Amino acid sequence: MNGRLGRTMTLGVLVTATLMSGCSAPVSEEAQAPPSESHRDPDDHEGHDHPADGGPAPEGMTERDEPRYPVGAEVILTADHMAGMDGATATIVGAYETYTYSVDYTPTTGGDPVEDHRWVVQEEIRDAGGDLLPDGTEVTLAAEHMTGMDGATATIASSTGETVYIVDLEVDGMTMTNHKWVVESEIEPAS
């Protein structure tokens, strides 16, 4: 009798497990698709969507007069914002005069906090005004560099007044247009 009871219980457990697995919510196509590009920060967090086309510069930005790297110039990037970026050849799309910030934030879509996201410009911070925001200031982002960024609460980690650039580049076989942002110290002339 013990053997028969054991087989019956085992069969019951298997049937229950099979039925329960059939009741789980389906995984959406979006969740199954790999992200277009993962963003790399010093803490090496990955998996945040990074669009292949960053779109135009925010309204109200001031173009830099006679930037070191003019529009159309081919340059080498020394930034490591994402895998494959350091050493990549890029083309300058725009050069701007503004304050640029590294920020810490938690995506509005959930997930792990993002630390030291480089970069967000003054014009991508809601109600930022025209003055430099001090480190530690809590702000609301109006940038769409990655999924879950727009509307996120962030803290200013650091800032710079360097010329900031939009670039086109190829990273790990993926062409990225209008990538935002790279500051002047993260660029070298192409030989």
UniProtKB/TrEMBL annotation:
Biased composition (Basic and acidic residues): 37-52
Sequence segments annotated as region (Disordered): 24-66
Name of a matching Pfam family: DUF1541
Stored InterPro entries: DUF1541
Domain DUF1541: residue ranges: 71-122, 135-184
Name used for this protein in its record: YdhK family protein
